[in-house]
Amino acid sequence: MESLASALREATATLRLAGVPSPGVDAELLAAHLMRENVGRVRALALIGATAPEGYADLVAERARRVPLQHITGVAYFRGLELAVGPGVFIPRPETETVAQLAIDAARALDAPRVADLGTGSGAIAGSIAQEVPAAEVFAVELSELARAWAARNLSPLGVTLVAGDYTDALSELNGTFDVVVSNPPYIPTEAVPREPEVAEHDPEMALYGGSADGLRLPLAAARAAARLLREGGYFVMEHAEVQAPALARILTEDRFWSSVRTHPDLSGRDRATSAIRTDVPWNGR
Ligand SMILES: C[S@@+](CC[C@H](N)C(=O)[O-])C[C@H]1O[C@@H](n2cnc3c(N)ncnc32)[C@H](O)[C@@H]1O
Questions:
Q1: Averaged pLDDT for residues 266-272
Q2: Domain ranges of the chain
Q3: Cβ proximity of 122 and 92 under 8 Å
Q4: Exposure winner among 6, 18, 110, 111, fewest CB in 10 A?
Q5: Residues of the chain with pLDDT > 90: what percent?
Q6: In CATH terms, is domain 80-278 a member of 3.20.20.70?
């Protein structure tokens, strides 16, 4: 039987050779998943000479083929949530936690806020808001049937209303009644295929591409949907690529539906979110 310590070393070398960005951490996380232990315990067990778990080499080989770690373990961690994920749904990213925080802050300032998450994917943002702002009434909109299956699993215990459909016209019966609208829409320019195989081959296309050369068609559709859904004074926040920040700020500033347009940096200082306040112009179904 191979020792855990030597299996971890070999796995790290294999994953490094395959170009996995954090080979040591992934080697430990795969072992932790199989052993149903946390990473700290795995390290301790390696030190005291434990043996490698059965099936470890298979999981390492899968990861070396650049299958996302979260598809192998079936879990993605986002703020306080442990989300079920797998093929057909976008893996939530750490930078989106900052966007969720902005929506949570806006919702927390109100007594019984009504909140919508447009393009909810696994339900990461909507679920975090429901968990962290218990007074909020949260709706989550998703077009993809596969993504919705994962969202349903993650969101039903949290009391979020999951809506099937296109956010362009979803929830129109509630137009003008939302206090907060948040979105991490698809925003990658059509020709910019991501380099990492985990993203290019495993994140769904519908979650990635913004539908135009600059990637802004779907983000701007999300902004229009937010203008339709929000009450006067309501708060909108959206994630985007750093390079899109100036264009989005300009377009929203010039749009009569928005005021107080602000760009927000993520934890590494990149401008990855834009927020705005709904003005009192009546919605005219433009
Ligand atoms: C970048 S992913 C974000 C998922 C999740 N909010 C997150 O942050 O992890 C964008 C999501 O929007 C969904 N989507 C794309 N176009 C949509 C549309 N027109 N209406 C509703 N959902 C849409 C995709 O299927 C995908 O789940």
A1: 94
A2: 4-65, 80-278
A3: yes
A4: 111
A5: 97
A6: no
